[in-house]
């Protein structure tokens, strides 16, 4: 019996694509390089800043100080963290349905605390979620199961009674290692549906509200 649902953040609860893309493009333009399109940067978002830099700078990345580029992206993003970001369609309805059924809700993201908490404060639908575990909350992040186990502990729920919903391979890997039921958010930043299905999650859902049928 499912007693809690824990969500990844970027690409699962929130569409943060355009704000992260803007941060990448700001850094590219400051180095005299052309911006990249949403089609180029969106598949990289769930894999972090390094992946964004790789699709933006391509072969020229080795010519730059990667740490400085990373800081440039993060600085711009932190100052413009919720200009375009919003919940995916169906997330508000899903959260309301979970609440009405007494199902606990938490967030486990690899996003660092200094970015996660200000972002959540800007999103009305997510402000009431009290259990939030970030990538730097513990000494390990996903795909380690430790942050998910910590989230379950904070929710006072046995991991085997939890769903973990995410849009990246490491999300499914972490859920399985934590003995949680894994759910792929196919509405998120998955590289392709074919690749996402190869992760062998317990559930593969094309929209958030469809999760209710499995609780």
Write a structural description.
With 215 residues, this protein is α/β, with parallel strands linked by helices. It has helices spanning 17-30, 38-41, 48-57, 66-79, 91-100, 113-121, 146-155, 169-177, 193-197, and strands at 4-7, 14-15, 86-87, 104-108, 131-133, 162-166, 181-185, 203-205. It folds into two domains: 4-15 and 85-214, 3-Layer(aba) Sandwich (Rossmann fold); 17-79. A six-stranded parallel sheet has the order 5-4-1-6-7-8. Helix 1 packs across helix 3 (48-57) and helix 1 crosses helix 4 (66-79). The longest helix has 14 residues, at 17-30. The mean pLDDT is 96. Keywords: Carbohydrate metabolism, Hydrolase, Magnesium, Metal-binding. It comes from Pseudoalteromonas amylolytica.
CATH superfamily of the largest domain: HAD superfamily/HAD-like
Q: Element order, helices and strands? A: EEHHHHEHEHEHEHEHE
Helical content class: 25-40%
For the record, the CATH architecture of the largest domain stands as 3-Layer(aba) Sandwich
Q: Span between N and C termini?
A: 7 Å
Number of domain modules: 2
Individual helix count: 9
Keywords: Carbohydrate metabolism, Hydrolase, Magnesium, Metal-binding
Protein name: Phosphoglycolate phosphatase
GO molecular function: metal ion binding; phosphoglycolate phosphatase activity
Organism: Pseudoalteromonas amylolytica
